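CORE FACILITY INTAKE
Project code: CF-77B
Contact: R.S. (postdoc)
Sample description: multi-component assembly, three entities in total
Requested service: structural model of the whole complex
Turnaround: standard
Below are the sequence entries exactly as provided by the requester. Do not edit them.
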Amino acid sequence: MIISISVPSKPEASDTKAGSSVVTPGELITDDPTWMRGHGTYFLNDKTYSSVAGTVLKVNKLLSVVPFKGRYSPETGDHLVGRIIDVGQKRWKVDIGGEHDAVLMLGSVNLPGGILRRKSESDELQMRNFLKEGDLLNAEVQSLFSDGSASLHTRSLKYGKLRNGVFVAVPSKLIVRAKNHSHDLPGNVSIILGVNGYCWIYKTPLSSAADHSASTAKTNAELSSAASGNYQPGQGSVSITRLEQESSWDIYSDKNDALSASIKDTISRYKNCLLSLSQCNIGINEIRLVRAYEISLGYGDTNLLFREEVRQSIGEDVIAQEKMRGAG
Amino acid sequence: MSRLELYSPEGLRVDGRRWNELRRFECQINTHPNAADGSSYVQQGNSKVLCLVKGPMEHGANLAAGTKLDPNGPVLSLNINYPPFASNERKKRPKNDRRLQEISIILKRCFMKTIVLKNYSRTAIDINLTVLAMDGGLLACFCNAITLALIDAGISLYDYVSAVSVGLYDQTPLLDMNALEENDLSFVTIGVVGDSDKLNLTLCEDKLPLDKLERLISLGIEGCHRLKELMDLQVRVAGGQLQERQ
Amino acid sequence: MVRDYDISNNEKQFVLAALEQNIRLDGRKLLQMRDVHISVSRDEYGYAEVSLGKTKVACRVTAEITKPYEDRPFDGIFQISTDISPICSPFFESGLTTGSKQSNDEILISRLIEKAVRRSGALDLESLCIIAGSKCWAVRADLQFLNYDGNFIDISSIAVMVALLHFRKPDMEIDGNNVILFDEDQRNPVPLSILHIPLCFTFQFYNPNDDEENIKGNLNNELILLDANLLEERLSLGSMTLTINKNKELCQMVKCGGLNIDASMIMNCCQHASNLVDDLTRKINDVIKKDSELRKNPVEKELQVVNQRET
């Protein structure tokens, strides 16, 4: 029986010969039994088939398929942004945008009063005072359970509750893994690019702003309004040392600092830049984000950046610039 | 009822196709990248269906309170949205339409055998189907749309499930029926796994002579294989686009 | 929440291992049905009790005169009610008292019976019309599930068909816009016009291999069972219901997902079902014929009337 419909001929014939070959569910990858079968595959007898649409990845003798899209799957050491969704017995449940919720044990957070403080029952009873449902935090994956869910910890100064900013979610696939995922950006704004695709853009805290201000001063020229503002948020608290800060209740405070309009404007501009990159499917790292930010300044008012075509063209400009610099 | 000539002596159907021709099949994936983990849009002739897949996740929105997550595999929940404007008669459908309930059970059971269960213990997968326009082949469109959306969500599947309806006009089997043909002829919807001859779902609700069944099924299987090819092509194109700039 | 029927792992393995050797726990062959027992009521019309092994169902057919649906003025009304109460098994919840959502199985059972009998046009709806647009017969079949040991669908289709064949509606005359109904003693009641007898056959599928083999392999050694009992039904990985009548017409074929089965094996199932349908139809007709012969015997009827007067 012949089903006669004209269809464009398969274009992937040429692609498959290139380094990364694309496979779709049910497709035979190899009938060589010596390969070890990794994620995204299943096998019958000697034959290994793909179970997702993605590219074949061969590492030594391990064969796996990396899907084009998919939920974030945590790995030990990943720097994440998450949201508390449940407070339980000695643990918090954290939504990290993965298949499973992560847990944050009471024992793996810094509590007010210093690292050496013993955890008592009264801490268990007042867990909601530290972190409660809806709070955002950044943390690191400490270990993984057998089903792939993660256990987090916040035992470092750079982790903990998030304040003074906005939350942006982008596909986790777009975040380029790097050594460092928290960056201070021009405009007195910092960002945490969570490996899980959850990002947090916030006002650079004063302590780090001080070391950073010299480097950002030049790029800040056009934002002089921010610098010239008389009001310096949190001016009174500068004297608190880092050690004190850590041991105080401040790290679990729910109160945002007062933010100036210009900081808010910058934060929202960064947010739109992040979304522009995401819309254009561009891998996100610090350099590209700053570049997108610089380009976006040319488009004028922040309000315009909500428009889809503006975002698209920002993304394309980033790519074009990258090509130019790469060539030059 | 008006007597339409559903199959002319010259071998043409109401919409000008021959007996073994599919309707124009168009599909897209990743249509709603921000609203769901996986999304697809399927158009078979004038039937248009949207599918959004959320998950796998630990807290399903459609999950009834108290439903426990299964340690052996995902909990699928399926929600069909069939608005009054989608079909010819603008009839308001009762909330628990038995026919849609049955279809959703069939689809649920179909995909529970297609998803690689062991990868998704203690998770929930929500599937939302929306009919934009219906011109026959309801179950077939649903099935194809779900397959594509699941693939787009990066969920492990053993293989594609493609479905098509096949009807019988007198002695002639007709592939991929539209609403006019479905009204007057009996038909069977079949869903095929990948490139095999294995049937995952069959649904026939009208009288058919038993001796004709084999021809219908074999034509249907051919049609399904063709659809699978078309879907595969689209998945590869979309995958290439996603990859391009990363 | 009703607890599901729990089967221990041992029991499960035992049953499946036996099935792989073509042995069923009750000694049947894989594609053999349990014996069907049909009994109909002697002294009233439209009541049948059918049992299939331990599964037991009763069906009562009643009729009344109402107004037809506005969009179908020339047709009568036929309804099948299938309310599965906890009487037959604690696995079913009473929908009326709790108002809870029906389980998937319950929805499927009622849908499949509905499609097998009503949609396939077993009952001639046009013959139920009395005066177009204003009066028609509304026939109602109430299924009562008495005991559950698997395979409600097949047995229900038998029960509804027997009860419909057994039913007699009062004879009547039309006088202008009035309808005159006659008592049983005045005129013999008339049977419904039944066009064909659709019967359901439900096959269950089992997989002796793993899922990968089922999808990609070509062993095609999936096991197929006809008329599963409760235990087998709970262990099955997929099912298919065929509805066939004596004229070898397929009225319904529903395979609700589940295990993937090669097309050729499905064709074999159809063939097998079409062989069985003759026997079963004959059995049903015999029961009906025997009943009507008993009723025809005027002496017996006379005696019955006398008996009634005396009591």
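Facility notes:
- Residues 69-162 of chain A form a domain with the OB fold (Dihydrolipoamide Acetyltransferase, E2P) fold (CATH 2.40.50.140).
- The CA atoms of residues 25 and 51 of chain A lie 4 Å apart.
Invoice: internal transfer
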